[in-house]
Recover the amino acids of this structure.
């Protein structure tokens, strides 16, 4: 079951206006989108993004009773400027992004996101990738050893990145690494059991592969620039991050806008989940919510 993280906090900080225009860049289970729509009247607009067609279908069903205008697009949030242009929308009142994994995608073995179930090495946010889309299989089976090692270290701080990359290349020469469990077996052969008593040894590798497969850091950097440009003066940008790499990107961008006197930091320190929320939803333990408000010019 998908449980939204920092749910009330993220809706509250958007300060939603009844006739405003708001973007949910990561529809997922559409819980946040529905909460935004609940605050909007007939003159309000909700724009929702997701690459997964199943998420679009869920959102259509969940949002159908709300009176606001709804624009749901099967696209990455990095295309925010293009979608706004196509819909003749110049500026928006608020943008929300939840950069965490979708529980629906993790639970589907055919998507290849989880090291706990066997499935093909896809890891794309799209539910039906084309031959032109890069998959985790492509990275594991075709990328240069040094590039794989650098990716594992840069995107997941994997200290055994060189050993893992070397073993991946040696194994794929013997036979292709086709499934999630094939890859887990390679990783477990590298890391001693004492190194994975607390967390599965595949955790960091799978995180890095997902980020690389979907160019997640590139997408976040792009949406920050485009999203901030699209905000009305007084508009708010709220983002939930789940690991240090993406949080650093958001924190630095928000700080730079504030230092340039273009925005105000609503959260000088990130909002974190309460102990009660973490007990109910362990996925929330690393979540951080940062909020920026564009200054009137």
């Amino acid at each position: 079951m998908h449980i939204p993280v920092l749910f009330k906090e993220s809706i509250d900080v958007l300060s939603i206006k009844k006739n405003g225009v708001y973007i949910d860049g990561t529809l997922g289970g559409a819980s946040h989108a529905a909460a935004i729509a609940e605050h909007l009247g007939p003159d309000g607009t909700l724009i929702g993004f997701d690459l997964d067609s199943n998420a679009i279908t869920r959102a259509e069903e969940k949002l159908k009773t709300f009176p606001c205008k709804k624009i749901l697009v099967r696209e990455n949030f990095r295309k925010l400027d293009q979608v706004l242009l196509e819909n003749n929308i110049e500026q928006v009142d608020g943008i929300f992004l939840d950069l965490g994994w979708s529980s629906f995608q993790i639970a589907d073995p055919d998507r290849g996101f989880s090291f706990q179930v066997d499935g093909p090495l896809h890891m794309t946010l799209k539910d039906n990738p084309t031959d032109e889309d890069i998959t985790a299989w492509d990275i594991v089976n075709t990328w240069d050893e040094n590039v794989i090692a650098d990716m594992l270290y840069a995107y997941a701080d994997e200290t055994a990145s060189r050993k893992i990359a070397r073993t991946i290349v040696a194994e794929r020469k013997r036979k292709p690494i086709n499934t999630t469990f094939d890859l887990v077996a390679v990783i477990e052969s590298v890391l001693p059991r004492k190194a994975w008593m607390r967390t599965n040894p595949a955790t960091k590798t799978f995180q890095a592969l997902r980020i690389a497969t979907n160019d997640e850091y590139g997408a976040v950097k792009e949406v920050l620039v485009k999203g901030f440009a699209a905000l009305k003066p007084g508009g708010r940008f709220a983002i939930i991050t789940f690991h240090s790499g993406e949080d650093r990107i958001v924190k630095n961008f928000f700080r730079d806008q504030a230092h340039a006197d273009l925005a105000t930091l609503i959260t000088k320190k990130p909002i974190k989940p309460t102990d009660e929320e973490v007990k109910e939803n362990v996925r929330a333990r690393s979540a951080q919510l940062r909020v920026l408000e564009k200054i009137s010019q």
